[in-house]
């Protein structure tokens, strides 16, 4: 290792040939994949070459190399597995299609029309809580009423909207 640390390529080749079979075997046993084991072994010896000047002979070289291989294998096992391009399938555009957008726009228009036809206090409670994202307490303060009154307005407003939209929205909304 001292010669490798000084940049001696011949010493590195000798060291690599001596330890490559054990390195490959260890990586293969941990990963269960020969191709990935070869990648790990290659990366391990690259690290040996690049970190050789910092190596301290506190432990045997084989112990140090084994630690490098185990760490690389564990890192690789933590990563999500690679999937072949064919297995990935077609790329799906997350944006709604033109038809879906038209349907959504029509639903929103119908809902806005139905909300506009609600009695003023029900409409205000619906708009403040669902449109503006306010809590019932905040809506009650703005409407100068109690929280229970706002809750009643919301229940009645949603009932009226369900009737007006005749099943266009889910019962839970």
How would you sum up this structure, described in words?
This protein has 173 residues and is mainly alpha-helical. It is 72% helix and 0% strand. The chain has 9 helices and no strands. Helix 2 (9-31) packs across helix 4 (61-78), helix 3 (34-51) packs across helix 4 (61-78) and helix 7 packs across helix 9. The radius of gyration is 34 Å and the shape is elongated.
The structural class is mainly alpha
Largest sheet: none
What integer value in Å does the Rg equal? Answer: 34 Å
| Proportion in helices | over 70%
Strand tally = 0
Q: What's the average pLDDT? A: 87
Oligomer: single chain
What does the overall shape look like?
Answer: elongated
Which range does the strand content fall in? under 5%
Which stretches are low in confidence, meaning pLDDT under 50 for 5 or more residues running? none
- SSE topology string: HHHHHHHHH
Number of discrete helical segments: 9
How far apart lie the N and C ends? 70 Å
Offer a quick outline of the entry.
With 173 residues, the chain is mainly alpha-helical. It has helices at residues 2-5, 9-31, 34-51, 61-78, 85-88, 98-116, 120-131, 136-143, 147-165. It is built from nine helices and no strands.
Describe the secondary structure blueprint for this structure.
Blueprint lengths: L1 H4 L3 H23 L2 H18 L9 H18 L6 H4 L9 H19 L3 H12 L4 H8 L3 H19 L8
Keywords:
173 residues; mainly alpha; 9 helices
């Amino acid at each position: 290792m001292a010669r490798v640390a000084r940049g001696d390529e011949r010493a590195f080749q000798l060291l690599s040939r001596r330890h490559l079979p054990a390195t490959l075997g260890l990586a293969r046993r941990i990963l269960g994949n020969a191709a990935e084991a070869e990648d790990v072994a290659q990366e391990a010896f690259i690290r040996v070459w690049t970190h050789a000047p910092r190596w301290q002979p506190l432990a045997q070289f084989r112990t140090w190399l084994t630690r490098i291989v185990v760490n690389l294998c564990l890192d690789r096992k933590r990563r999500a597995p690679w999937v072949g391009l064919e297995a990935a399938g077609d790329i799906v555009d997350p944006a709604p299609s033109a038809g879906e957008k038209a349907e959504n726009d029509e639903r929103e228009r119908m809902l806005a029309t139905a909300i506009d036809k609600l009695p003023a206090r029900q409409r205000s409670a619906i708009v403040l809580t669902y449109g503006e994202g306010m809590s019932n307490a905040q809506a009650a303060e703005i409407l100068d009423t109690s929280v229970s009154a706002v809750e009643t307005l919301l229940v009645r407003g949603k009932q009226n909207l369900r009737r007006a939209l005749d099943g266009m929205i889910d019962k839970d909304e």
